[in-house]
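Take a look at the protein record below and tell me what you see:
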Amino acid sequence: MWISKPYKQFQIKSDLYFKIDSEFRAEGIEIPFPQRDVHFRSSDVPSQNISPELINSLSNLSNSLATWLKENSHNQTRQDKNKDIQSNKVIKKENSTPNEDDISH
């Protein structure tokens, strides 16, 4: 498609895509999302053909992921404890008896 205002190409393209989508929806036309499922069976990949470099890389990746998960679960636990402490402070404050300044006469 040729346009007379190339600087507006992205707006024109966007408008065109929205118009096509609108017309397709009005006519009940659906375009399926392309996908492919790939299934690996462990027996399909002989372990003796895997390079030591790949095994080492996968091992390092696994160790890094385990370390990251451990650190972040610890951080999450700390954040949860801080939230609990703050919640308890709010609850205690709400349940405390009002002082003279809080009561309007």
Q: What stands out?
A: The chain has a mean pLDDT of 77. The first helix runs from residue 9 to 26.
